[in-house]
Structures are given as C-alpha cells and as structure tokens.
C-alpha cells in the first residue's frame, strides 16, 4: 500500500525528488516549508499498517503451524508413550513367562534330584546287601576245598556257588558304576540349577525395574533425572533374540540333563530289580544244589554202609568156612598118619613077602588120596584167606569213604545253614526292592539276567 508514486507526487517533490521536513529553518533563521508530502505521510502510515497486518498474518500462520505441531507432538508423544508402555508390558510378560518356565524347571530339577538321591541311596544299600551272598559264597567255596580229595568234585552245589559269586559280583559292579554315574548327573543337575537360579535372580531384578519404569510418574521422573542421578548410559548391545536364547539354552540344557538323569534312574532301578532277582535265584540255586548234593551223599553213604554190612557178614561166613576147612585139614592128619604107619610097617616084612599086592596098592592110594585132599584143603584155605584179606581191604576202604562222606556232609550242612540264614534276611524289611521303595516292574527275569552276567553265570543249573 502506498508503494507506487504518481506523477503529481513526483512534481511536488521537486526536480531532485527530495523534500525537507516542515518547520526547519535555513541558516539565516527563516522557517523552511515542510518537506514531507501528504502522500508520503499517508504512504508511510499505510506501510506501517501493511507491515503490521503482514506480521499479524505471519504470526497467525505460525500460530496455526505451532498448534498443528503441538497436536502432532502430543499425539506422537502419546503414541510413543503407549508404544513404550506396551513394549514394557510385553517385555514384562515375556520375562515373566521365561521366569515361570525357569521356576518350573528348577522345581522339576529339585524333584528329579531328590528322586535320584533316593534311588542312589537304595542302590548303595543294595551294594552293601550284595556283599553278604558274595561273602557267603566265598566262604562256602573255601570251606568246600577242605573236603577230602575223593569228595572234592565239581558238582551241582559247586557250580551254583560259583554262579552266585559271579552273578552277585557282576550286579555289585553294575550298581557301583550306576551310583558313580548318578553322582555325576547330580553334579550336572546342581550346575543347571545354579545357572537357572542366577537367571531367575536376573529376571526378577529386570522385571522389578521394568515395572518401576512402567509405573514411573512425572514427579518421580523429575526426581530420578535431577542432580547427579542421571548419567549418560551406554546403549544395550545384547539383542532380544540373544537374551531369550540364553534362557532357552539354559532350559534346554537343564531339560536334557534331567532326561538323562531320568534314564539313568530307570536303568538303576532295573539293575536293583535284577540284583534282587539274581540274589534270590542264585541263593535258591545254591540251597537246592547243596540239598541235592547232601541227598546224594547220604544215599551213597547208606549204600556203602549196606555194602559194609554185607562184606562184614561175608567175612564172618568166610571165617567160619576157613575154620571148617582148617578143622577138616586137621581131621586128615590122623588117617594120613595111620596110612603112612601101615605102609611103614609093611616095609620090614621078610624078603619075598614084601610084594606089591592089592593091600600095598590100596594103602598107597589111601595115602595119596589123603595127601591130595590135604593139599586141596590147604589151597582152599589159602584162597579163602586171600578173599578174607580182600574183603578186609574193601571194608577198610568203605569205612574211610564213609568217614570222608560224613566230613563232606558236615561241610555242606554248614554251608546250607549259612545260606538258609541268608535267605531269611531277604524276608526282612528292606530285603527286597519293593520293601525298600523301588518298584519291581521293569526288571528282567532271573534267566534273562543270568544270560547277561557273562560266562561264569550263564550256565543254568543242571539238576
């Protein structure tokens, strides 16, 4: 407004286009005429009004833009606040989910650790219990080596004792190995639990801080940022996926160790059941073998005693026969002497009278018959004496055999008593896996166990 001059205004300003201010005087003291024209004055005022209106327009426009910016920033701040709160809530929920899984895994580890320790305690108890049949078998084998040489045979009882020794020793070695493995698994479970405990503590601290950040108000925020409390923080370098994977890896490792512990616990339970089956079956086999051996020994001893009675009766009869032969032999001495005396008497007959007549021949035949009869009786008496010596030797040998069988029977009786006493302990509390708190299911049969015990215990008892 008023920015363009007209020709009239130019003429009023003069040829040089300048004007002087009104009321001014020249150097001579005279008052000069006003130099500002009416148009310029109006124009100046109009310019001020125009500038003011333009400034008002710019201010209104800037005010509108500022209002729009305020609305935009308010909406952005609200959206950012909602996004931040939602992100914090998601992080809290995610942390709580991982925390719950970690706590559940810790509870499962503690339960598995207690169960594993219970099974290990039962296994240690059974290792101690297996020492009794092993010691009994070793003592029985050592005692049976003291049997007489003729009775020291590899019989059913001997095989059963060696089977009991090898089977129980194998079970004890297996249980010892399992207990060592259980201790190693318990150590791994402890390490997993410690790592999860540290992760749970970190998660609890993180959740607490996130909850505090979520519930933080303006006044609290001003207090947190006032003074030296606020410091420049470093930007987190860990990625959320890495943060989650750390906990996931801990849970996976703990689950894997717990599964291995469960398999080891089940295998140890099976070994305990197998140990019970082996101990019971081998002890029963030893008792049965000793009974069979004792019955056979008693039967043979009875047969030997009967044979001894028969031999004794035969010796008595033979002794009577020998006495009868001796009496017959003695009875021939008198007729033989008479016959010889008769022949001797006839030798002093005068010459011509001493002839080989029928009487001489009869007397000579009588002497020969008597001498032959005496020789036969002597031979028979010698044979009967030889038979008597043989019968006496047989009787002495049978007496020695009976004494040896009685000694072997006494040793087997002691072994049988010890194994029967051992069998009675199985019926006491804790003598079986079931009474010790171990389930009997899942074990194998005694025959199946015997097939897995190796060469010394794989041979069945051949009764």
UniProtKB/TrEMBL annotation:
Keyword Magnesium among UniProt keywords: no
Coiled coil, from the record: 356-408
Annotated Basic and acidic residues bias: 1-11
Annotated family: Belongs to the tektin family.
InterPro entries listed in its UniProt record: Tektin-like (IPR048256), Tektins (IPR000435)
Protein name from the UniProt record: Tektin
Compartments where found: Cytoplasm, Cytoskeleton, Flagellum axoneme
Pfam families: Tektin
One GO cellular component term noted in the UniProt record for this chain: cytoplasm
Source domain of life: Eukaryota
GO BP, one annotated term: cilium movement involved in cell motility
Region feature (Disordered): 1-38, 426-463
Keywords annotated in UniProt: Cell projection, Cilium, Coiled coil, Cytoplasm, Cytoskeleton, Flagellum
Protein's UniProt keywords contain NADP: no
């Amino acid at each position: 407004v008023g920015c363009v001059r007209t020709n009239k205004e130019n003429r009023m300003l003069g040829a040089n286009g300048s004007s002087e201010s009104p009321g001014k005087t020249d150097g001579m003291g005279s008052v000069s005429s006003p130099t500002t024209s009416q148009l310029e004055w109006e124009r100046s005022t109009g310019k001020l009004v125009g500038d003011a209106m333009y400034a008002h327009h710019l201010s209104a426009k800037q005010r509108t833009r500022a209002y729009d910016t305020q609305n935009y920033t308010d909406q952005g701040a609200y959206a950012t606040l909602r996004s931040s709160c939602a992100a914090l809530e998601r992080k809290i929920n995610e942390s709580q989910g991982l925390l719950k899984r970690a706590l559940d895994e810790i509870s499962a580890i503690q339960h598995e650790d207690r169960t594993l320790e219970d099974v290990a305690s039962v296994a240690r108890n059974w290792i101690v219990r297996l020492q009794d049949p092993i010691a009994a078998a070793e003592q029985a084998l050592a005692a049976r080596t003291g049997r007489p040489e003729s009775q020291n045979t590899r019989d059913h009882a001997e095989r059963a004792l060696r089977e009991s020794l090898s089977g129980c020793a194998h079970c004890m070695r297996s249980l010892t190995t399992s207990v060592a493995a259980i201790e190693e698994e318990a150590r791994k479970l402890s390490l997993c639990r410690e790592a999860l405990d540290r992760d749970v503590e970190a998660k609890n601290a993180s959740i607490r801080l996130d909850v505090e950040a979520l519930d933080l108000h303006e006044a609290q925020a001003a207090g947190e940022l006032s003074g030296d409390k606020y410091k420049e923080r470093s930007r987190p370098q860990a990625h959320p996926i890495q943060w989650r994977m750390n906990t996931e890896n801990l849970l996976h490792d703990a689950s894997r160790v717990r599964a291995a512990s469960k398999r080891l616990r089940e295998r140890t339970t099976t070994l305990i059941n197998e140990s019970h089956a082996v101990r019971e079956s081998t002890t029963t086999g030893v008792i049965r073998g000793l009974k069979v051996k004792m019955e056979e020994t008693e039967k043979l001893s009875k047969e030997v005693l009967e044979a001894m009675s028969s031999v004794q009766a035969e010796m008595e009869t033979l002794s009577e026969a020998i006495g009868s032969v001796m009496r017959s032999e003695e009875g021939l001495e008198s007729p033989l002497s008479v016959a010889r005396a008769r022949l001797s008497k006839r030798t002093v007959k005068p010459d011509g009278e001493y002839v080989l007549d029928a009487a001489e021949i009869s007397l000579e035949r009588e002497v020969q018959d008597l001498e032959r009869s005496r020789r036969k009786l002597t031979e028979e008496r010698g044979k009967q004496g030889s038979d008597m010596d043989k019968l006496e030797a047989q009787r002495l040998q049978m007496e020695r055999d009976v004494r040896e069988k009685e000694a072997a029977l006494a040793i087997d009786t002691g072994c049988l008593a010890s194994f029967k006493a051992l069998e009675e302990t199985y019926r006491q509390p804790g003598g079986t896996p079931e009474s010790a708190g171990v389930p009997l299911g899942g074990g194998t049969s005694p025959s199946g166990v015997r097939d897995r015990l190796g060469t010394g215990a794989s041979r069945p008892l051949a009764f």
